[in-house]
Design brief:
Elements (H helix, E strand, L loop, with lengths): L1 H5 L2 H6 L24 H13 L5 E8 L2 E12 L4 E2 L6 E2 L4 H14 L21 E5 L5 E4 L7 H6 L12 H9 L8 H8 L17 H13 L3 H13 L20 E3 L5 E3 L2 H5 L17 E2 L1 H12 L3 E2 L2 E2 L3 H7 L20 E3 L4 E3 L16 E4 L5 E5 L4 E6 L2 E2 L3 H12 L10
C-alpha cells in the first residue's frame, strides 16, 4: 500500500492541470471579481461527477461568513452494498493529513522549542551524516557528497530538504526501496533512522520536491515532546477542536461508516479497490507507524472544524490552536525565487508553497486553471480529496471522494461550481 502511496506522485498530481466539463455551467465572457454561492450549480456539478462515472460518491461542505452555506452528498459510499453517502461517512484523506501535522509542529515553534532555520540534525542527529547523490562515476558507482549546507527545519516544512518519496530508477530511489522507511511495521524513530540513510536527491534549498518531509515533521514532534505523535495531535488539535471522528487509529465499530475506495481502470469504469486499500491502516491493529504525511480518516464536518480554525486565524469556538501570526506565516509563500525547479507544483495554479500548504499568489491565468482568490491556501489528498481556505471571501470548503488515481479535474469542476466560470478574485493592487 505504501509504495502505491508514494510512487508516481508526480504523474498523479499533474492530472490536476487538466480541466473536465462533466456538468453544464453558466458561461459569460466578462471576468468577475465577485461571486455568490449558487447551490443548484454546485448540485449539478456533484451529480455530474457521479453520473459520468468519475466517482461513486461525493460529499461537499462550504462555510462562508461564519455559517454553513452549502452541504450536499451525491452518489454512494459503497456501490456494491447500495450504501448511501451520508454526512457522517468517513474518508481516508491521505495527504490532507499534512496540514494537521504542520499545525502540530508549529505549536511547538510558538513555544520556542526550535527555530525555523535550526539544523534538523540538532534535534534529529541521525540526519547529520545524510549525503547528497550527485550522479555516478566511470565505474557506475554512486557519487555521494556532503550537503552544501545542513538540512534546516524550514526545508522540512516546505519540501526543499532533498528527500524523496518512493522507489524508482535513480540510486536514491533504489536505496529507498531497499530501506523501505515508510513500512507500516516501523515506528517514527525507525522511519527516521532509515530515511537518514537514503541519499538526498539534491542539495538542501535548491529545489522543491514533494517528499517524506512531513513524516520527519511528525518525528520532530515526537522527539521534542516525548509524547507519541498520534497522542499529541489528539490532545492538542482533535480534542480541543471537537474533531471526534478524526484519527489515524479508528475503532472497529466505525468501519461500516468508511467510504469504499474505487479505482478507475483503463476502460474508464470504476473498480472496487483491494481490501487492504479499503481499510488503509486506520483499522490495522498491527500498524506501528503514524505517518505525518498521511493516515488520518475523517468526516466532512470534522475536517471543516480544522479548516474553520485556519480561516479564523487559529481559533475556533473560543479555543486557540495557533496564533494569528503563525497561521499567516504558514499561508505565506516560503520558496526563494531562485527555487525554479518545482516538479509538478505549478500545476496547482499561480503560486508557491508555504508551510504544508500551496499558496496562491496571483489570479488564475485562464479557464484551465482552478478558480480561486489570491491569498488562498490549500492541500489535497491521494484519493482526490481537497480543502481550501479563502480569507478574501471568508470561505473554506471541504470536498471528499474516494477515487484513485488522483484526479485533479474533479477539483477544477468543483471550484468552478463554487466560484463560477469567470471568477478571478479581487484586483491585485
Amino acid at each position: 500500500m505504501f509504495r502505491a502511496l508514494t510512487c508516481g506522485l508526480g504523474a498523479l498530481f499533474l492530472a490536476s492541470a487538466i480541466p473536465a466539463d462533466a456538468a453544464p455551467q453558466e458561461r459569460s465572457t466578462a471576468a468577475s471579481t465577485t461571486f455568490q454561492i449558487n447551490k443548484p450549480r454546485i448540485d449539478r456539478s456533484l451529480a455530474g461527477m457521479v453520473t459520468s462515472g468519475r466517482v461513486a460518491g461525493v460529499s461537499a461542505l462550504i462555510w462562508q461568513n461564519g455559517r454553513e452555506v452549502y452541504f450536499a452528498t451525491a452518489g454512494s459510499a459503497d456501490l456494491e452494498a447500495g450504501r448511501a453517502m451520508r454526512r457522517d461517512t468517513l474518508f481516508q484523506i491521505y495527504s490532507m493529513t499534512k496540514p494537521v501535522t504542520g499545525v502540530a509542529l508549529m505549536q511547538l515553534w510558538e513555544q520556542g522549542r526550535f527555530g525555523l532555520d535550526d539544523p534538523l540534525a540538532r534535534y534529529l542527529p541521525e540526519f547529520a551524516q545524510t549525503k547528497v547523490f550527485e550522479g555516478v562515476d566511470g565505474r557506475a558507482s554512486p557519487i555521494l557528497v556532503s550537503p552544501e549546507r545542513p538540512i534546516l527545519i524550514r526545508d522540512v516544512l516546505r519540501h526543499t530538504a532533498g528527500f524523496g518519496y518512493g522507489s524508482g530508477d535513480s540510486y536514491p530511489e533504489r536505496e529507498w526501496a531497499r530501506l523501505d522507511p515508510l513500512n507500516p511495521g516501523h515506528d517514527l524513530s525507525e522511519l527516521g533512522r532509515r530515511l537518514a540513510q537514503v541519499p538526498l536527491l539534491f542539495h538542501p534549498g535548491r529545489r522543491w520536491h514533494y517528499s517524506a518531509a512531513v513524516d520527519v515533521q511528525a518525528l520532530l514532534v515526537e522527539r521534542l515532546t516525548g509524547v507519541p505523535f498520534e497522542q499529541f495531535v489528539r490532545e492538542h488539535i482533535f480534542t480541543p477542536l471537537g474533531m471526534k471522528d478524526s484519527a489515524w487509529t479508528q475503532p472497529q465499530e466505525r468501519l461500516p461508516r468508511l467510504a469504499t475506495m474505487y479505482e478507475t481502470i483503463p476502460d474508464g469504469r470504476l473498480q472496487r479497490s483491494s481490501e487492504q486499500e479499503q481499510r488503509g491502516l486506520n483499522f490495522d491493529p498491527g500498524r506501528k507507524l503514524t505517518m505525518g504525511g498521511a493516515g488520518i480518516a475523517s468526516t466532512a464536518d470534522d475536517y471543516m472544524r480544522f479548516a474553520r480554525m485556519l480561516l479564523n486565524d487559529g481559533t475556533l469556538d473560543g479555543v486557540r490552536i495557533l496564533k494569528r501570526s503563525t497561521v499567516r506565516l504558514m499561508a505565506t509563500d516560503q520558496l526563494d525565487p531562485r527555487v525554479t525547479e518545482r516538479s509538478w507544483l505549478p500545476s496547482k495554479g499561480q503560486g508557491g508553497f508555504g508551510i504544508d500548504f500551496f499558496v496562491r499568489t496571483a489570479p488564475p491565468l485562464d479557464a484551465g486553471e482552478n478558480r480561486g482568490a489570491t491569498g488562498e491556501f490549500f492541500w489535497d489528498g491521494r484519493a482526490s480529496t481537497l480543502f481550501w481556505v479563502d480569507p478574501v471571501n471568508k470561505l473554506t470548503a471541504v470536498f471528499l471522494v474516494q477515487r484513485l488515481p488522483f484526479d485533479g479535474t474533479l477539483h477544477h469542476d468543483f471550484r468552478r461550481a463554487v466560484y463560477g466560470d469567470n471568477y478571478l478574485g479581487p484586483k491585485v493592487q
